[in-house]
Amino acid sequence: MSFDCTRPVGRGRFVRTMCEHLFVRWENLEVGKEEAEARLPGFREPAVVRTFDAPEALGIRFYEVQARSALNQVPKRSRMPFRWTINAYRGCTHACTYCFARPTHTYLDLNAREDFEREIVVKVNVPELLRVELGRPSWKGEHVALGTNTDPYQWVEGRYKLMRGIWEAMRDFANPCSVLTKSPLLLRDIDLMQQIAKRTDFTANLSIPTLDEKAWRDTEPHTPHPRKRIEAVAELKRAGLRTGVLIAPLIPGVNDAPEQVEPLLELLDEAGPDSIGGVALHLRGEVRDIWFDWLRERRPDLLPRYEELYERGAYMRKDEASRLSSMVRRPGRSGPGRGIVKQEEPPEREV
Q: Which CATH architecture has domain 22-342?
């Protein structure tokens, strides 16, 4: 099954086409003239620095690198429910203000602010590396999670198409896997996801923090519209795939009002994901400073509240996390993960 963005998708109110926000026109692409290569810490070979003339790419540089490995092992002390991840990209053009992966850019001698959004590392050899690693006798076929650091379907994936090679490897080795994204671009690969699901465990997860237009644009300025993500959930379910939704992050005073959460839950009930969970806002390291700067500029009225909620560190006060959990959980909800609000930790350090 191939994905045709002109055909109707979804069901009920979600029957419409999925072209918007999915694909970028990539004609007349060229390597940046000012800088043809650069060296990044952790990589043996210089990166090819590429710029594109697509409107979405203005002012953004892409560092094409040869990674040393595809699979990253999550530290044992982590509370993540998986031990292996793949991140084909480092940095993310979605530019979510709250993103807990921002500090990973400092490992590359880049900053966690503008550089995280505009200096994007592309591991062009990940699909080939993955095949080698999955084929090793020492590999035990453990679950692999994608999208735990930066979004694997940020819009430049429409150019590089690394995810198709990754999914083909997962299919051929029948390796259990899952993905988390904010983009309906994953529907491009729905044929491969179906093939994987026939051979092993697979789940596609969408992150949808809010339907509120202002909250969305203020905190996720370059992500696809939340309603497009809900439509993607409906299409994934129509294709017979196990699907989850994370209302993530839940941000006190920004997207947690009942009149914001309830309409989202109602639309999700109609779209039909197998699970709905929540993730409370996590503020560690540079992300805390970035978020408090955002509050000072956009919502100074919330500053005292956040100083109290996060006075002990990166994690939200437990009573507030419990309140958020009660908002996501509703009577009659069933299925794995429904109503759970987690306080996630930053992803693994990897190259």
A: Alpha-Beta Barrel (3.20)
